[in-house]
């Protein structure tokens, strides 16, 4: 059993929860005219207003006490110091070193890793500039114009999210595509209008063994060779981003087209490593550097700010508060910024692959709920789809609203309306509309209950002036560290992902059975039936 429930601060929170669970945001705001000021914090270009959460000053004190009793600060310092905080894989988790300024010292196994990080960044910059300047030439002598990133999970979601988020800053003469699914439709649609002679494939895979990525990479190689005729073309048209240099070499990608990183970079924490090459090609080395600066600014804030003013700590603790005390099962992430349309998908891996764990770091079953489900869509689209449930359903769904003061594509009233909506949604969720207010509007008694908004539904409002490479970097780092804070409270390892293994192993076995129709099947009746059905279907 986890000892979390036995901690003094946890027990104090349990008692405190009894006094908070029925408290209304209406009352909390009525008692404190400066509540928005008292429950907000700023860092790295972001402001977090958490006043619309069901917390009092006492709640926050209890949560900070819990963090201290769980030794959050010591754990954070251990991560920054390069300790092997990923205990089940005996690895450090040093993504913070990926954005450390040149000249800083961060040691792993007694070696300063920062010079290596910057050497790779410099090589990436030379390569990215060559593509952007038109100096990278394909097998026919034409310049490379199409960049296809092949990867999955952290080797896809970060690059796609960053590309979409920073498209405004990207070179529009380049066509960027992303292929992840082993479903061939993904590859076929990505390349159907591309010329092989103008196409560069970036094979992004930390391990360079992932089934989906390697299947797509081989398909890409065949597609290229069908046009080029000679294997020599692979050298010009393929780049690898990987820690597995030997497998890359066997694939035929030369060392000069290989950009490495170390095993202390987890897949879902890798968008600012060599895995970000597509981002750097799209927006250029300088803007990529600004993004890293944004990450670093949030890292420094997380490392140095007292918990009481620390954005990742506050966000992580609020998540624990709702997950474990209010029984909330999900968090909705709602960016009011079209360029962040892939941000919720990116966060799903970051949060759920990290904190979807049921045993502690020591291997004991946890006795509280861990990682909530993250989901979301950009505003205002979600308002016309699932917001009904958030406003009037029976579940409590804390929301993270994200908004910017200025649009990157200003026009007429668009941005005013967008911002009016996000502000109004947070207000409606928090304060709702009582039966009396509904009746006072003259609504007939039979309809009145349908028009009541209970309110008291919590949300954060995260705001920054503009979406820039730097604000994006800081935002991602904010969520990375918030995930870490939650994991520290739950005493789980956010850096491994053993839960993806069983499905991978079974899929390999089933693939062999499908492709060898005479093989005896010894699964359960349902699995056997599905395999037999597909054996027939594929043969027709
Ligand atoms: O299957 C999960 C996972 O291991 C992720 O953690 C990772 O981001 C993804 O697969 C891709 O792995 P790789 O970069 O090694 O291809």
Automatic annotation (TrEMBL):
Signal peptide: none annotated. The lineage of its organism: Bacteria, Pseudomonadati, Pseudomonadota, Gammaproteobacteria, Lysobacterales. The keyword Cytoplasm applies. One of its GO terms (cellular component) is cytosol. The active site is at residues 353, 384, 504. This is Glucose-6-phosphate isomerase. Keywords: Cytoplasm, Gluconeogenesis, Glycolysis, Isomerase. It comes from the Bacteria. GO terms for biological process: gluconeogenesis; glucose 6-phosphate metabolic process; glycolytic process. It catalyses: alpha-D-glucose 6-phosphate = beta-D-fructose 6-phosphate. Belongs to the GPI family. It is found in: Cytoplasm. Its main location: cytoplasm.
